[in-house]
Amino acid sequence: MSDASASSAAAAPSASWLASLDAVYALFEDPALRAQHAHLAQRTEEAVRLCEEVVRDVGLEALAISYNGGKDCNVLVHLLAAVLQRLSSPASSSSLPRLPALYVACAAPFAEVERFVAASVARYNLELRRVRSDMKGGLQEYMRMRAEHMGRPCSTVFVGQRRTDPGGASLKPRDPTDPSWPTLERIHPILDWSYADVWAFLRCPVFGDEALRMSAAQRDETATAQAPGVPYCVLYDQGYTSLGSTFNTLPNPVLRLDDADAGAPRHAAAAAAAAPPSALATRAAAWRPAYMLQDERLERAGRVGSSPAREGQGQAG
């Protein structure tokens, strides 16, 4: 089953949001920023060059991004939106190119994830199609929709999969799907990024302060409303390090706070401290944020009964 996104034109992005996308290039083009963030700048440039190569090869009309609101595809959508902005528009443009996107929704998604995905549609001008299926079935349905209803067959999908994800060990940056899957080329710009790389990017101050780009009513949808960086789902500040369905995803036990950790960073909890008690504040107060996980081998420690067959050619959260 599928749900089409709204077809109305997106509101013009703010100057500060366009600057956040421009900062993707500044990170490796500006000598001072490159020196300050050397490793991240190198990772970012490699990912950007792959995105540029593919966009030039196949064109915007033939591609899509697989987007589920998770941290990895959030890095990817910010990178790809920056590339499309650079390649498709003059420097003075005040609009973002429309980016085709596929959201393969899990069986019981978190409400926070659903709200965050909806907010991301507006941020990145996503032409989102939501499909309720596994990844293989979702791609089949999306390709059918693209060909039959949108008149734009899809040949290439950008995926935020990393080598440490299930099924990621043997992937290449540009990789065709297996014979039993829909015929597509999968693009993996952040394939060799580490868990720490992902969080270094999402929390990089070069990308500006989300608090200046959002109204107070919107800030519970992202976790960066009180700090600079790229917007990411608020659940990551409540101890979740990998997101799936509500029935198989828990906060990472490694990040649980006890009484001795009273002074540990609690980004989301601190933001909610002045507000009336709520389920959000209670849940956030018990866990360290995801970016504090030191051992990336434990990234999926909060996932219960994950299926590699289901996720092997998709992306983790």
Automatic annotation (TrEMBL):
Name the pathway it acts in. Cofactor biosynthesis; FAD biosynthesis; FAD from FMN: step 1/1
What reaction does this catalyse? FMN + ATP + H(+) = FAD + diphosphate
| Source organism of this protein record | Tilletiopsis washingtonensis
Q: What is the E.C. number? A: 2.7.7.2
Keyword vocabulary terms for this entry: ATP-binding, FAD, Flavoprotein, FMN, Hydrolase, Nucleotide-binding, Nucleotidyltransferase, Transferase
Q: Does the keyword S-adenosyl-L-methionine apply?
A: no
Q: Name one Pfam family in it.
A: PAPS_reduct
What CDD domains has UniProt attached to this entry?
FAD_synthase
User: What Gene Ontology molecular function terms does this protein carry?
Assistant: ATP binding; FMN adenylyltransferase activity; hydrolase activity
Disordered: annotated segments: 298-317
- Protein name per its UniProtKB record: FAD synthase
User: Which InterPro entries does the UniProt entry name for this protein?
Assistant: PAPS_reduct_dom, Rossmann-like_a/b/a_fold
Residue span(s) of domain Phosphoadenosine phosphosulphate reductase: 63-203
Could you give a single Gene Ontology term from the biological process aspect? FAD biosynthetic process
